[in-house]
């Protein structure tokens, strides 16, 4: 299926948000996730199904000063 990941259209075999993070090499405990503009808690990623055309945002924390 194709989804929008951080503004880029990609093909994925992942069926859940948790699977997508693993497939794309994100460190799951260290990122925030949103699906179609809605925040998804870490505890809900395994149960969050992906469908064709969904928009997924994965954000890593940044340090600054």
UniProtKB/TrEMBL annotation:
Entry's transmembrane regions? none
- Cite the Gene3D superfamilies for this sequence: 3.10.20.30
InterPro entries from the entry?
A: Beta-grasp_dom_sf (IPR012675), Mopterin_synth/thiamin_S_b (IPR016155), Thi_S (IPR010035), ThiS/MoaD-like (IPR003749)
Q: Which Pfam families match?
A: ThiS
Q: What is this protein called?
A: Sulfur carrier protein ThiS
């Amino acid at each position: 299926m194709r989804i929008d990941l951080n503004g880029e259209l990609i093909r994925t075999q992942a069926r859940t948000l948790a699977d997508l993070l693993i497939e794309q090499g994100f460190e799951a405990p260290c990122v925030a996730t949103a699906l179609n503009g809605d925040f998804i808690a870490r505890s809900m990623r395994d149960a969050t199904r992906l469908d064709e055309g969904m928009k997924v945002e994965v954000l890593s924390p940044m340090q600054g000063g």
